[in-house]
Specification:
Length: 171
């Protein structure tokens, strides 16, 4: 049975994917083990997008049993899932997962000019992103996009420094 087109494996030829130096832009798409439909949608939408040679987009999961158990076959089939040192099964895993992604990406693709992060519930047009990035100096620090960080604790006992908890000063 022929392998179906995939989000990352269609970005470059299989021969080029074996050579990390040919990748100019690396985009990690944060995903959850259960978000199979989001990954399927992104694979279908990105397959027809022209002009993204030199870009590599991969789905990012934590390297833990709860993430691997439901995704190993999908990862082998599409070859567009990476596992990073983070635990998708624990509360408050998102920020460490993003940090682990950037560490992984720099080690795996050390000569890429650009490293990025997106979410699986939005679509990044790689060709448009690449066009915009070509106009920038990749040796300079840049932030491109919208940054939003929301953090909270659902229960006081899970956040030792929350107002009213033992050992913290009320705000």
């Amino acid at each position: 049975m022929p392998r179906s087109p995939s989000f990352a494996s269609t970005v470059l030829t299989d021969a080029a994917l074996r050579h990390p130096d040919t990748t100019w832009l690396v985009l990690g798409v944060m995903t959850a083990p259960a978000a199979k439909q989001n990954r399927r949608n992104l694979r279908e939408l990105s397959h027809s997008e022209p002009g993204r040679r030199g870009a590599r987009a991969v789905f990012v999961l934590g390297d833990c049993a709860c993430a691997r158990n439901g995704t190993v076959m999908e990862a082998a089939h599409h070859r567009d899932i990476v596992y990073v040192k983070s635990d998708d099964c624990r509360p408050w895993h998102r920020a460490p997962k993003v940090f682990a992604w950037f560490q992984f990406a720099v080690r795996r693709w050390p000569r890429a000019s650009w490293y990025g992060k997106s979410e699986d519930d939005g679509m990044t047009r790689l060709s448009s992103l690449m066009r915009d990035l070509r106009a920038l100096d990749s040796t300079e620090p840049w932030y491109y996009g919208i940054m939003q960080l929301t953090a909270s604790c659902s229960f006081r006992e899970t956040c030792p420094d929350a107002p009213g908890s033992a050992g913290s000063a009320d705000w």
